[in-house]
Amino acid sequence: MTSERFIELVKPEQEPLRRFLLSLCCGDAATADDLAQDALVRAYVASGSFLGLSKFRTWLFRIAYNCFIDFTRRRRDTLSAMESGPELRVPAADAADSSFRYQQLYLALERVPEKERASIVLFYFEDRSIKEIASILDMPAGTVKYHLSTGRNHLRDYIKL
Length: 161
Hints:
- By secondary structure, the protein is an all-alpha fold.
- 73% of the residues lie in helices and 0% in strands.
- The chain has a single domain (3-158), classed as Up-down Bundle (Butyryl-CoA Dehydrogenase, subunit A, domain 3).
- The chain has helices spanning 3-10, 14-24, 29-46, 56-82, 93-99, 103-111, 114-125, 130-137, 141-158.
- The radius of gyration is 16 Å and the shape is globular.
């Protein structure tokens, strides 16, 4: 794939990709931006291996999801090595103002297990089909449905209406 073709395919996916990662990162815009950049670099490097067996969008989101999983594993390993308590994150003033209205949702999403969170974000925020989510998350469609169901139940428990 040429670099021009790659750019042509990536342009319409940049904002949905960032939104997906922002939701997975529970509103942490800096981390989401870093992960999006990492995913785009990985996709560009691997663009020669894209065979078109799935949609480009699905392939790109799979790479982004893998970047997110790698990040959470590294963070978990670092935190366990430091034997510290829970991580305290204080968002920048502009980030706090812009995401305040979603604060309760992000706090609830942060408590939901990763695969459930990814399924919920892809299905409800990105309007992806069960089949596409299964491809992105590399799991059977039935498992995606299970994660959506249990994730909704977890969110219902965590969000106080």
